């Protein structure tokens, strides 16, 4: 499907890594990549998105696709790109060991938590970055490949420029918060496409739902791998400054699409928006093949995220799994909610919901740092979705993990799923919670 990697491009980065490894020879500076410092406009909405055809590169939809944003842990796609490149060129083997330095071990969560002096294989390191989004392992891999994370980050920026990422600048390998680390939805789509084009033999790492590590099962948190037909990667990301990010890809009827969603207000909102974009994109491609002239924008029910980020600020670089366990539900195995992403679902949200019968299921509509905000959210949701939650009891569940969770309780499984479907169809955060 994709053209082979140009050998001259490989040589550019190989020379850069070699130079970075030499004692006394500094890596290319970020300034040499001629990336201007980009200051984010705090008044501008965080949300940005793009959908492209993976084969042709055609842009099928974009919204603020060139506006600077914080990439958070989607950054690790570039770290993995350079790792895959080193593997394909023989500079690295899957069985090689990646040592954990004191600096790597000191990185903020999410991380594997290995101690200084420990090590893991390159294969394990890739899994840790792709599935767990481990910040300590991203730093360790950067040090393994370039001698230091700062040198590696400079090479990330240069490689991104060479791939066509004109508005991206990297200063770390993990995506942990740094105001200098900037990208765009378009640039991250370019990176995602380049990764699957240039290294298809390694793309399956992004499809992993979990992996075994030293006797423990490490579960991933890209929930669309479980809930959306044809979805097979790539990477989530979160910081308080970025909101909820996701670069994703799916295949249907032999066609592959890539989408990037940045600045979501919750994992549920982000995932629903990603599914909306991809599903509508596939529908547009099918209708075009029958001669119809249409676009994603003409068929998408558009509504941007509003309200607070639906979890406490943790600045983890990628805290999705921590958020699901602490904020959205006390159940360590949250029930994924598959919501129809079509325009019909949005219209169905206005229809009367079936009569509710009391049960043990709940729906959660947000998590907040104060009880008053949680109560306010309950009131807003009840006013807007009165029929969907008519027979449910609103409750604020105590502050586990520092968050007050707004829930509607006493519902049957069918009623809870129907209510959450109606709520998420209007782009409001919602999660079904099963009884213990």
Written description of the protein model:
Helix content is 36%, strand content 18%. It is of the alpha+beta class and 436 residues long. The protein folds into 2 domains: 7-322, DD-peptidase/beta-lactamase superfamily (Beta-lactamase, 3-Layer(aba) Sandwich); 352-433, Alpha-Beta Plaits, CATH 3.30.70.1070. The strands form 4 sheets. The chain has a 5-stranded antiparallel sheet with strand order 2-1-9-8-7, sandwiched between helices. A hairpin with a 2-residue loop joins β5 and β6 (216-219).
Structure described in brief:
The chain is of the alpha+beta class. It is built from 14 helices and 13 strands.
Keywords for this structure?
single chain, 436 residues, alpha+beta, Beta-lactamase, Alpha-Beta Plaits, 2 domains, five-stranded antiparallel sheet, four-stranded antiparallel sheet, 14 helices, 13 strands, 36% helix, disordered N terminus
Give the strand order, joined by hyphens, for the main sheet.
2-1-9-8-7
For the record, give the distance between the C-alpha atoms at the N and C termini, rounded to a whole number: 47 Å
Structural class: alpha+beta
Second CATH tier, the architecture of the largest domain: 3-Layer(aba) Sandwich
The count of β-strands is: 13
Inertia-based shape = globular
Q: What would the CATH topology of the largest domain be?
A: Beta-lactamase
Strand proportion? 15-25%
Q: Look at the structure and give the CATH class of the largest domain.
A: Alpha Beta
Instruction: Return the string of H and E elements.
Output: HEEHEHEHHHHEEHEEEHHHHEHEEHE
Low-confidence runs of at least 5 consecutive residues? 3-8, 19-38, 319-353
Largest sheet: 5 strands, antiparallel
Number of helices: 14
Helix content: 25-40%
CATH homology group of the largest domain: DD-peptidase/beta-lactamase superfamily
Mean pLDDT: 81
The figure for the number of domains is 2
Rg, Cα atoms, Å:
22 Å
